[in-house]
Amino acid sequence: MTVSSAPEVAFGVLPRADGSARYSHAGYTVLASVNGPIEAQRRDEHAYEAHVDVIVRPAAGVGGTRERHLEAILQSSLSQLILIKNFPRCLIQIVLQVESSPENDYVNTKLVQASLNFALMPTLMQTAILALLSAGVPMRATATATAIAVSHDKTVVDPSPRDVETARSVHVLAFTSQDDLLLAESEGDFTVKEWDDIYEAAKKICCRPAPDGASMQLDDDDSSPAAVGPDLRQFLRSTMESKVAADLHWK
Amino acid sequence: MATKHHVVLPGEPIDPSLIPTHPKHPLRLGPGLRHIPPEDIVPTVAGQLITNPAKNSMWIEYNSNRYIPSQNDLVLAQILRSTSDFYLCSLSPHTAPATLPHLAFEAATKKTRPQLAPGQLVYARVSLANKHMDPELECVHPGTGKADGLGPIAGPGCAFDVSLGFARRLLMARSREEGGVGVLEMLGGEEGGGLAFETAVGRNGRVWVGSESPKTVVIVGRALQETDRLGLGLEGQRKLVKRLVKEVK
Amino acid sequence: MPREHEPSLNEKQFVTQALQENLRLDGRELDQYRPLELTFGDQHGVAEVTLGKTKVLARATAELTVPYPDRPLDGIFTISTELSPMTAPSFEVNRPTETEVLLSRLLEKTVRRSGALDTESLCLVAGKQCWSVRVDVHVLSHDGNLTDAACVAVVAALRHFRRPDASIAQGVLTVYTPAEREPVPLSWLHSPYCVTWSFFGDEGATALLDATWLEEQVRAGSCTFSMNQHGEICQIAKLGGVPVDAVALLQCASVSLTRVKEISDLVDRRLAEDLKRRDKGGFMAELRAENDR
């Protein structure tokens, strides 16, 4: 099957949740629901800030340590974005349900234990942010994330499962809308020089300036086609613009 | 409306030319904005930036589903249980309960206070809202001691859930002109064949519709929910009302 | 433990009162379903069912494993139902609620124990190797009548699913990857569907289909019929609640059959449409011709 790599999003998929979004990108589809601020349970209650609860559920099989690992990474990143001090003793619950991931036609994967997939991370992150925006949870900034695989001196943006398998190292990076590095997770062997290149490449993808800016021409010098991905920030903005317009049609 | 829609995302800088300047009034920030000293104003939600130069105020207009209590809001609360001095009420599912003192009703004394059963709906005003404390409600105007339409909701009728933005539009003084909702007027007027009903709109996204005839309640409730869900304009609302009246009768 | 939100007294009274006049809050007839929609994912074995505001996603997967020692000739078939906080914040991970247990037991009885899937066909080498087919039911949004929606999702996902092809030559088992050989459908025997009735009133005098969440919270009892389009009943579950007249229950059963036929038609139609969509371009057709033996 052909896998469309252009990002797509639908809001308000779950009518009973406070906010929800279904986002697909690079063959991954993730559905997110956000509920909150709601009352936190005693064990999660914090006197001065909200507890952010992230739950990642695999498409098939029960969640295991790999999901817990992804949850921990997302939880700490999203807690930085959400204005948790606004809601003391509350809980903001984000449930991320993986619906589909690209198939590797050359291997029969053991599906029951979905593998830890750094390639899945950006989609999870992006879906969570879109769902938070749709729920109207106050945030410091938005963020964009991307995954990059390095193999034989070649870098692949949004790697397919086959790319990940053959890659020497896989990296996930996320940047806030203020161009700050929010998240960097790496797996595999790589040199500092490689990491620097990856950082630059990821920054270029995540922090592309607005198209109407005058500085655009200056940045247009990259010639490596592998480093070009969809303009995530522009995507985030345009989808939110149409959502807001639909919500406020009466204005 | 006059100029283009300024859609903002959390953390985006706001063009200084959009911030209203007024010689006398201090600048007032509404929902969705925060002030980072010394002089940065940053949006925290995705929505449309609205400014009112006359009142020197600005806020973000957006729609959501989770009610966050704010003082003087009118809400439709549900009694959870009673303690020795107050009722614990729920404003929205799974949130911390709000307190409603037993004596915060019109002409209530220790002996004459209303006895409310768990599950009972009350129309109340938020008298205290602070992020560090549970919200407090009252069913009486603190100055005049009058109920002003607040209090336990009795009589046949049903509550319906709507989005917060829609509840706000329903509560606007001129909801038809400013909020673009004429559905209630239409139901009671010519299009709906003069249905007789009453409503209590809570900012927490709950609308109570009361009428002697269950059919009327169903028509009004569905008209409200459909208008909200489909985002109907005035013309769409008119068609919807006509269709529903025909369907249920 | 966060508690489920209860409807208000006013709502409860109104629902019961309106039902006495055969009036439902959403304007449906008593025996009318909300619009039922079924869609399939890009991958095989992914089915999403929407029933009004209720949404269920089922995903079927298969892997190689060893059969149970007491059933060496059978493959393994499991249905896993887990309600996550996505359904409602009152559901916790790893802490099954009553709703969840009842749902999984009903699905188990309806689909697995009724022999809808031929488990013998899943066995590759007796006592050594077999397929383990697993369906994960994800309840995305809960607005009542989970059972009926989940059952449609499970059946549709399994019928849509394709497992990798395998062959045994000279005692050596080869499992082919999708690139080598087109995956094959499961051996499916019959399609059972659930139809749930809710009863209201002291004697269960008012019976209605496809209750919403609010109606479910107010109802006095319920009964689930599971049957296939031929009218063969797989199970009937009436778990307590008000006593219902036996003749009325018979009436319910016969109405259930018409509903099951409607659901069955819809699933067949959607499956056929999906097959057509996938066959476009002749790519699949070409592969199939190649593998035809």
UniProtKB/TrEMBL annotation, chain A:
Tell me the first and last residues of the signal peptide: none
Q: Which UniProt keywords apply?
A: Exosome, Nucleus, rRNA processing
Q: Nucleus as a keyword?
A: yes
Where is this chain's protein located in or outside the cell?
Nucleus
Name all Exoribonuclease phosphorolytic domain ranges.
8-138
> Gene3D superfamilies, alphabetically?
GHMP Kinase, N-terminal domain
Against InterPro entries, the record matches this protein to: ExoRNase_PH_dom1 (IPR001247), ExoRNase_PH_dom2_sf (IPR036345), PNPase/RNase_PH_dom_sf (IPR027408), Ribosomal_Su5_D2-typ_SF (IPR020568), RNase_PH (IPR050080)
The entry assigns this protein to a family as follows: Belongs to the RNase PH family.
Task: Quote the protein name from its UniProt record.
Answer: Exoribonuclease phosphorolytic domain-containing protein
Automatic annotation (TrEMBL), chain B:
Q: Which residues form the Exosome complex exonuclease Rrp40 N-terminal domain?
A: 27-66
Per UniProt, subcellular location reads as: Nucleus, Nucleolus
Q: Which Pfam families does the record match to this protein?
A: KH_6 (PF15985), Rrp40_N (PF18311), RRP40_S1 (PF21262)
Q: Where do the K Homology domain residues begin and end?
A: 157-215
Q: What are the record keywords, sorted?
A: Exosome, RNA-binding, rRNA processing
Entry keyword RNA-binding: yes
UniProt key word rRNA processing: yes
Q: Which InterPro entries match?
A: Exosome_RNA_bind1/RRP40/RRP4, KH_dom_type_1, KH_dom_type_1_sf, NA-bd_OB-fold, Rrp40_N_euk, Rrp40_S1
**Classification via SUPFAM superfamilies:** Eukaryotic type KH-domain (KH-domain type I) (SSF54791), Nucleic acid-binding proteins (SSF50249)
PANTHER family, per the entry: EXOSOME COMPLEX COMPONENT RRP40, PNAS-3 RELATED
Query: What family does the entry list?
Result: Belongs to the RRP40 family.
In its UniProt entry, what is this protein called?
Ribosomal RNA-processing protein 40
Q: What is the lineage of its organism?
A: Eukaryota, Fungi, Dikarya, Ascomycota, Pezizomycotina
Automatic annotation (TrEMBL), chain C:
Q: Which CDD domains match?
A: RNase_PH_RRP45
InterPro entries in the record, alphabetically?
ExoRNase_PH_dom1, ExoRNase_PH_dom2, ExoRNase_PH_dom2_sf, Exosome_comp_Rrp42_subfam, PNPase/RNase_PH_dom_sf, Ribosomal_Su5_D2-typ_SF, Rrp45
Q: What subcellular compartments does it reside in? A: Cytoplasm; Nucleus
Give UniProt keywords alphabetically. Answer: Cytoplasm, Nucleus, RNA-binding
> Which Pfam family is an annotated match for this chain, by its short name?
RNase_PH
* Residue ranges constituting the Exoribonuclease phosphorolytic domain according to the UniProt record: 32-164, 191-255
- Keyword presence, rRNA processing: no
The similarity annotation says: Belongs to the RNase PH family.
Spell out the protein name for this chain.
Answer: Uncharacterized protein
